Amino acid sequence: MPRPNPFDFAGRSALVTGAASGIGAGVARWLAAHGISRLVLIDRDEAALQNLQLASSDTSNIGTIERHAFDVADPVRWAECEAGLGPLDHVVVNAGIGGSGTMADVSFQEWRRVMDVNLDGAFLTLGTGLRALRKDGGAMRGGSVVVTSSVTGVKPVPGIGPYGVAKAAVAHMARIAAAENAAHGIRVNAIAPGGVDTAIWNAGEDFQKAVAQHGRDAALKGMASTTPRQQFATADELAGEIGFLLSDAAANITGTVLVTDGGYSL
Ligand code: NAD
To answer: Where is the Ketoreductase domain (predicted)?
Structure first.
């Protein structure tokens, strides 16, 4: 039964990984502001996860917030989490880390570090999430999933080989899951952002040097100079786009990789 307001998430449950910072925190805030009844927030940064503020009580009817601090690449922790998870309506497969190195020179250790979180972690999240979306006392429940890929998984960008490969793989994983689950009433899409102003950039050596020389704002502006929009997106802009894909307003959209990059890939 379609809702009069397709952005009404009242009565629904959502799981978000990487929820303590950046895009994931933005999605948690967006869902809270759109009336979600139960949020399951997962991140390995326990302090940031506990400190995350969602919305003031007057703008949100949010019922339950569950915060679980663990590494999304840990299958044992996912098995424990799944045992008590119950049914879900929405999943955002979002936790990720940056990583650099050319295909000729990147070490196997760095390759595995990036794949561990960005691919294995996404696989474990997606599988757990899909089973919870199907769970409703044996009846078909339906729901929607968004996987955070990257424009670097669509357009080859030199120097971040393992990251780009992992992001291409998770976008394809979303498309396979979309094909497998459409008959269950489950939609699965990927979002492929260009630069977004979040903490993920802080670990990059070039970015650290630019921040030391020019300050963070100028460093971000410099990095955005090759993007037609001339600026990075904000985490809240990304949250709105992910929220749209999760919502009933996107009822006919599944298996899409939505590029949101200010024109970077043009
Ligand atoms: P962020 O660093 O602000 O947030 C990432 C969150 O994921 C952090 O809270 C971190 O603690 C958590 N996390 C990392 N590894 C984890 C693990 N193994 N287990 C549990 N939690 C873990 O960065 P962000 O930009 O918000 O990143 C969110 C997603 O967006 C990532 O998948 C990233 O690759 C993707 N992305 C970001 C950009 C960008 O420019 N910021 C562009 C394209 C794609």
So the answer is: 12-194
Report the domain count for the chain. 2
* Ligand 1 mean position, distance from CA 156 (Å): 20
Q: Is 97 in the pocket of ligand 1 (CB under 6 A)?
A: yes
Which single residue is written with the structure tokens 């933005």? 26
Tokens linked to 14: 């959502």
Residue 94 resides in a domain: yes
Is 264 part of the annotated catalytic residue set?
A: no
CATH number assigned to the domain comprising residue 179: 3.40.50.720
181 lies in the same domain as 73 = yes
Identify whether 106 is part of a domain: yes
Question: How large is the ipTM?
Answer: 0.99
Tell me the CA–centroid distance for residue 139 and ligand 1, in Å. 34
Question: How many Å lie between the centroid of ligand 1 and the Cα of residue 51?
Answer: 17
Whether ligand 1 lies within 6 angstroms of the CB of 211 is answered as: no
* pTM for the whole structure: 0.96
- Is 174 contained in some domain? yes
pLDDT at 135: 76
Give the active site residue among 163, 207, 232, 244: 163
20 lines ligand 1 (CB under 6 A): yes
265, part of any domain: no
pLDDT, tens digit, for every residue of 73-127?
999 999 999 999 999 999 999 999 999 999 999 999 999 999 999 999 999 999 9
